[in-house]
Protein 1
Amino acid sequence: MKLVFFGTPADAVPSLEALHAAGHEIALVVTQPDKRRGRGSDETPSPVREAAEALGLPVRTPAKSREVVGDGAAACAELGVVVAFGQLLPPALLGAIPNGFVNVHFSLLPRWRGAAPVERAVLAGDRETGVCIMALEEGLDTGAVYARERTPIGAQETAGELRARLV
C-alpha cells in the first residue's frame, strides 16, 4: 500500500520502520523542522527525519502542516499514517488522501485525548493503558477506534518505561 507518514519523536520511529519493513511504499515522510536541542547551537533533525533518510525516503519538514497539502495529494498515497506528529492536520490535508488518515495513539481512548497521554495515565494512577489505532478527523482524537491493545501499568512503572513498551 502506498502511504504518507507523519511523525516526529523517537516514539514514532518503530512504526515508520515497521511499515517500511512490511513492504509498504512510503511516498513521503513529514516531520517537524530541525530544532536546537541541548546546549549546543546546532540544529538537530527529528528522530523520524533521521530514520526516514536512513531508509532513503523523501522527507518534508514544514513549519505548518498546511504547507504540505499539495505534497500529500501529489504523493498519490492511498492512506496517511500519523504517529506523534505534533501538529493538527488541516481539513484540506485530511481530504487529500483518498482513504484518509489513521493515527497511532498511546492511550485507551477516549480516556486521555491529546498530548502526553502516557504521562497522564501514570500520574492519574491508572491500572491499565494501551495503544489505539484510530481514524484521524478534524477534532482532537475523536475518530473511530479501529483497534485497541491493552496493557497493565506496573505499580512502580515510570512513563518512560511504559512508553518504551507501547511503541
Note: Helices lie at 13-21, 47-54, 69-74, 91-94, 117-123, 159-166.
Protein 2
Amino acid sequence: VHALHGAACLLVADLKCATDELGQHGLDRDPEMRLWRAALASASGDADTAAHNFLESASVLATYPKTLRERFALQGATALIATGRGSLAGALTDLVLKDQPEPAAAAEALDLDGKRAQAAGKLDDALALWDKAAAFGDPRVRAWALYARVQALQDSGRASAADTIKALDGLRFAW
C-alpha cells in the first residue's frame, strides 16, 4: 500500500507524500523501490542519489510501460550526466530512442546525447545532436538544446562574444 500510494504521489508531483510513503523501511528490500526512489530523488534535485538508484534499478526499468520507462530513463540519464557518469547514460537514452518515443521524449534524449558527446570531447557530434533535438519543436527541449549549443560554441572559442550575445538574445523568449 505504501509503495502504490508513494508512486501515485510521485506521479502527481506531491514530493512530501512520495518521500513519506516511498521512504518506509518495509520497502527497502523491494528492488522496484530503488527505481521509484531514484525518480523521487531526481524530482527533488538530488542527482547523486538519483544516479546511484537508477544504476541499481536499471534491470527493472525495461519491464515498465513505455510512458514510465521514457520518463524514468530520461531522469536517469540526466542524473548520470549531472554526476559525471555520462558514459553510462547512453543505454538509457538508447532505451528511449529505440521504442518510437513521443516527440518530446525523443528530443530530450537527443539533447542529453548532445551533452554526453560534449563531455566526451566530441563537440561537432554534440552540435549536430542539439540541432536534431531543437528541430523536434518541443519548446522546452528546443530552448535547452539551443542554449547548450550557444554555451558550447562560446566555451570552445568557436563563437565571438558578439555572436554569443546575439544567439542568447534570440533565446530570451524561446520557452
Note: The mean pLDDT is 95.
Protein 3
Amino acid sequence: MGNDVTIGIPLHNAEKYITDSLKSALTQTYPYIDFIVIDDASDDGSVDIVKKLQLVHPRGKDIRILYNIKNCGVGVTRNRILDEAQGRYLFFLDSDDLMENDTIQCLFEKIEGNQADVAFGSMDRIDMVDNTQSRSYILPDTCLLNEDEMAFYAFRNYSTFQISICNCLMNLEFLRSNQMRFIDAVFWEDLAFNYEMVIKVKRAVLLSKITYHYICRSGSLSHYQDRELLNKSEIFENVYVLS
C-alpha cells in the first residue's frame, strides 16, 4: 500500500534550518506519509543533513531526495514536486518553517471526512528579523462545501484571509485535473497559485487550529523589501505576478 500523504520540501541553502524543519515533518503523528526533498542546486551542506536523517531517523527510509540540475527557483521546484508526488494528498513545507506534530493528522481527518479538495489550517508568523511579537492568523472552523463557496469566502475576506500554500492539505487528483501549476517567478508565486486554486475548489475545510509556523528570517525571499534599494526588474516581476 502506498502512503496517503506526500510532504514536499523545496531545498536551497538552508543548512541552518533544514534539520528542525524536516524533523517537524518526520515526527508527524500520522503514519502514512512519504517525503520528497528537492535540492535546488544548493552549495552548502543542506543535502548532507537530509542524507544523514535518511540514515538515522526512524522514518528516514520514506525520504526521497531529488536534484535540480541548476537553480530553478521555488516555483519550478514545487511544480516538480507536483509531478513526483505519489500520495493521494500533498502538503508543501518550506525548508525553514515548522509544522505542529499533529498537522497532517488534523488536516487529513477534515479533508477525508468532508471529501474536500483542500483543508486549510491556521498559522502563526514568527518574525526573526525585528524580533517583534509573533502574530497568529486564525481561520474560523467552517466547511465550504458548495460550488464557488470557497471563492466567494476568499474574496469577501480578501484583506484578512491569510492562507499559505504551505499550510494546506490538497487533493493531488484535484490539482492535476485542474492543471494547477506555479508560475516561474521569484516572488509571490504562491499567492498567484492560491488565488487561482480557490476559484476551482468545490469543497474546502478551514481549521482554527494552528498547524504551521511561518518563520520570517533576514535574507529570505519574503524579506526582499527590507533592502534600501530595489532592482527595477523585481518591480516588473511583481507587476507581472499581480496581473
Note: Confidence is low (pLDDT under 50) at residues 221-225.
